[in-house]
Amino acid sequence: MSIPGTLNNFLAEHAVAYQLVPHPHSNSASRTAEAAHVPGDAVAKAVLLVEEDGQYRLAVVPATRRVKLGQLHRLLGEHVGLATEDEVARVFADCERGAIPALGAAYGLETLLDDSVLEQRNVYFEAGDHESLVRLRETDFLHLLGLPRRGQFSAHI
């Protein structure tokens, strides 16, 4: 699969330099890091969240960490839960099931960024399939996110 149109257009619109990193098929962010031979801390894993009113947000944490919903609740002042697989497939309709790019802005979603993602020089994230990653400089990744709400809402796996 090639990079989905939504993501491709977003990257082109912002004229940011990126690299596609191919890897053997994988079904989880940590296995993707292994398959691509990149540090798990450098792979930005995107998790779709749903609010009580049905609105979606995207939480981004390193592949080596998991989202702590209680900490997100404290950060946001409201309850959020994990979206279902069907909701993920609907929101990211041009991506392979479960291969969520970590650029919420490309899909009209507010992005919540765990501070630990920015501890690497380069950030990698799913390119919309299970066989390639997008590689960006950390500064370009942050620029593309706009002004994400940031905080500490993850725990090491």
Q: What is the CA–CA distance across the termini?
A: 30 Å
Q: Hey, roughly how much beta strand do the residues contain?
A: 25-35%
Stated plainly, the CATH topology is called: YbaK protein
Count of the domains:
1
Q: What is the CATH C level class, in words? A: Alpha Beta
From the spread of the alpha carbons, the general shape counts as: globular
Descriptors:
two-stranded antiparallel ribbon; eight-stranded mixed β-sheet; 5 helices; alpha/beta; single chain; aminoacyl-trna synthetase; globular; YbaK/aa-tRNA-synth-assoc-dom; YbaK/prolyl-tRNA synthetase associated protein; YbaK protein; 25% helix; 157 residues
Describe the protein's architecture and organization.
GO terms for molecular function: aminoacyl-tRNA deacylase activity; aminoacyl-tRNA ligase activity. The protein is of the alpha/beta class. It has a single domain (27-149), classed as YbaK/aminoacyl-tRNA synthetase-associated domain (YbaK protein). The protein has helices spanning 5-13, 29-36, 69-76, 85-91, 138-145; strands at 19-22, 43-51, 56-62, 65-67, 80-82, 110-114, 122-126, 132-137, 149-151, 154-156. The strands form 2 sheets. Strands 1, 2, 3, 5, 6, 7, 8 and 9 form an 8-stranded mixed beta sheet that branches. The mean pLDDT is 95.
